[in-house]
Design goal:
The structure holds two protein chains of two kinds.
Chain A (H helix, E strand, L loop, with lengths): L9 E10 L2 E11 L4 E5 L6 H8 L7 E6 L2 E2 L8 H4 E4 L11 H6 L14 H13 L15 H15 L3 E5 L7 H16 L3 E5 L3 H7 L2 E5 L5 E5 H4 L2 H8 L3 E6 L2 E6 L1
Helix pairs in contact in A: 4-5
Chain B lengths: L11 H29 L7 H8 L6 H34 L12 H14 L4 H23 L6 H26 L2 H12 L9 H14 L3 H7 L3 H6 L4 H23 L5 H13 L3 H25 L8 H19 L3
Helix pairs in contact in B: 1-3, 1-13, 2-3, 3-8, 3-11, 3-12, 3-13, 4-5, 4-6, 4-7, 4-11, 5-6, 5-11, 8-11, 12-13, 12-14, 13-14
């Protein structure tokens, strides 16, 4: 047991998750401290999104508990959890048209009372987040006119507007080009460095190796390995988890994993 | 990357809300104009001063009588029901996350038609026809909700499919009753089906419910904005989605049931008005709900006045006119706003 003064921002306590009859993880234990970046890796259908939704408190686990800043979700006052943790969903369907600014302002919802309207301060927060995602000047554009990558950055901007302490990201790099992939990962590294917790599902093992402090590797059958990134990311474990042989290429300080 | 972009306007969000407020103010004026037209037009035209006199309660002759006992209840009923249908349509479109949903999509009008036509077929008095329509509407609502009950992402599709099937069943029952009905009752049945405000006895329940509906829905308007963006997003931002859905479903069904009971199943108002208003002011439910309510009221009030004056002394069913006005306007606007 660590003797931190502050409780971990996120914890799983003997957590078991199932979807359908498929086991995602059995008796998973881990803690995420402020400053940590956790990357969840696993093959298609391993249940990464399901686990992330469970960690976000949107899904009841089969067993065990999820602790947000030391307390189960149910113990937080109704609605307060949305000020503490934010979720970037895998896709942002748009059934109705809306402007970019309206979409970003959605992140202020947890802070507003039932009758409140967004204040100029809320608007400034939203415009700032749009600028951080390279969307300055887009405020009045209609969302359906954006490209896939621009929509993804808009979704990330809306999450930044929410200003949570814990960021749960489901494939944050989808639709992004190389430049924006790195920009987004650097941005969340900066947020972690300033005391936030970050947990994300990624598909790129080498980006995971570069940005993760911790890795949770799901084997797709309920088994899992959790630990510091350098310890978890080995050729043997990754080859087994993804069902495809890999080899390691040493390049100075870093190790690159290449499919055989 | 954005060095060539123009400077960000200081408050684009507030500016767009300024436009929405002007649209709302315009709709209030349009509502007053629609009422004035409805009260003054007819076989006996009433002048502006006589109209003012009649409304403010001064003593008067036949004009005052006609305005107060015939035209005012009818105009009020048409306005209230137009508002009810538009508000219910806006709520259903958010609930089903489908801009093409309308208040009838869940079988409510079909159930009401079965109840009302059953009562007409049995030769019941008009009060019983209303009762039959209301019971039929609520019966269909409960049936659809009961059959489609469940939790998960398929609920919406299942709700929609169940509603469509129940509506189809009601349609068959209506056709059966029409073919069995004696000659003398068929016209009354057809008018009820198309929507008709000529036989309204009590406009006040509809108006009271319209105000209640707005008072209940508006506090949840921002949560509805989130629900329209998808369930996961809404829940992650702290919205109690299950409770909100039940509220929207129940409220939408009740509003529709009262509207259909009062003026029959007037078509197109509940589908077209929310959509038109959305094209004009965007999809913020805090503005969309009141604006759609006003616009629906204006449309039905004006359409009903036209229905009883354009080919007077023949009265047209108002539902025919809402469709005749609504369809071309809708197609025109849709063509102007390619996505």
């Amino acid at each position: 047991m660590k003797m931190d003064v502050r409780p971990p921002i996120l914890g799983a306590d003997r957590l078991s998750v199932e979807i359908g009859r498929h086991s995602v993880c059995r008796e998973l234990d881990f803690t995420l401290q402020p400053g940590d970046t956790l990357v969840i890796l696993g093959r298609n259908g391993a249940g990464k999104s399901t686990l992330l939704h469970t960690l976000a408190g949107l899904r009841e686990p089969l067993g065990g508990a999820v602790l947000l800043a030391g307390q189960p979700y149910g113990a937080w006052p109704r609605g307060h959890e949305a000020c503490l943790r934010g979720l970037l969903a895998q896709s942002q369907p748009d059934f109705f048209s809306a402007t970019v600014l309206e979409t970003a302002l959605v992140g202020r919802h947890p802070y507003l009372g039932r009758w409140d309207w967004e204040s100029p301060e809320d608007e400034a927060i939203a415009l700032d987040a749009l600028a951080q995602m390279g969307l300055e000047g887009f405020a009045e554009r209609q969302v359906p006119t954006l490209s896939g990558g621009e929509r993804q950055r808009l979704a990330i901007a809306a999450l930044l507007v929410q200003q949570p302490r814990l960021y749960l990201l489901d494939e944050p790099l989808s639709h992004l080009d190389l430049h924006h992939e790195i920009a987004v990962l650097e941005h969340f590294r900066g947020l972690a460095a300033s005391g936030s917790g970050v947990a994300m599902v990624l598909h790129d093992i080498n980006l995971a190796a570069r940005y993760a402090s911790h890795v949770l590797l799901l084997d797709g059958e309920g088994g899992h390995v959790f630990g510091p990134a350098r310890k978890v990311l080995t050729v043997e474990r990754l080859s087994a988890a993804f069902g495809h042989p890999l080899r390691a290429v040493i390049d100075g300080d870093s190790t690159l994993f290449v499919p055989v | 990357m954005a060095s060539t972009q123009p400077a960000i306007p200081l408050t684009p969000y507030r500016r767009s809300h300024g436009r929405a407020r002007r649209v709302l103010a315009g709709l209030v004026l349009a509502a007053l104009a629609a009422f004035a037209w409805s009260l003054s037009a007819g076989a006996l035209p009433v002048s502006g001063s006589d109209l003012l006199n009649a409304i403010t309660g001064g003593a008067g002759g036949m004009e005052t009588d006609i305005v107060r006992t015939l035209r005012l209840p009818r105009a009020t009923a048409a306005f209230a029901c137009g508002g009810l249908l538009a508000l219910a349509g806006a709520l259903m479109q958010v609930l089903l996350r489908n801009p093409l949903a309308d208040p009838y999509v869940l079988g409510i009008s079909g159930g009401a038609a079965v109840g009302a036509l059953g009562a007409i077929l049995a030769g019941a008095a008009s009060g019983w026809i209303d009762a039959g329509a209301f019971v039929g509407a609520l019966g269909a609502t409960l049936l659809v909700f009961g059959l489609a009950r469940g939790d998960g992402s398929w609920t919406q599709t299942r709700l929609l499919l169940t509603g469509v099937i129940v509506a189809a069943g009601c349609g068959a029952a209506v056709a059966l009753m029409l073919s069995l009905a004696p000659e003398g009752r068929v016209k009354g049945m057809l008018f009820w089906l198309m929507g008709d405000a000529s036989s309204v006895s009590q406009p006040w329940p509809a108006l009271v419910l319209l105000l209640m509906g707005l008072v209940i829905a508006l506090p949840f308007a921002r949560e509805l904005n989130l629900l329209a963006r998808g369930e996961i997003t809404a829940r992650a931002l702290g919205v109690r989605v299950g409770r909100l859905r039940a509220l929207v479903y129940g409220l939408g069904a009740l509003l529709t049931a009262v509207a259909v009971t009062t003026v029959g199943s007037v078509g197109f108002v509940g589908l077209i008005v929310p959509h038109l208003v959305r094209l004009a002011i965007g999809n913020d439910q805090r503005l969309l709900l009141p604006a759609a309510t006003l616009a629906g009221g204006v449309l039905l009030c004006a359409a009903d006045t036209a229905a009883r004056t354009v080919v007077a002394p023949i009265q047209l069913p108002v539902g025919v006119l809402t469709a005749l006005i609504g369809v071309p306007v809708f197609l025109f606007l849709l063509a102007r706003h390619p996505r």
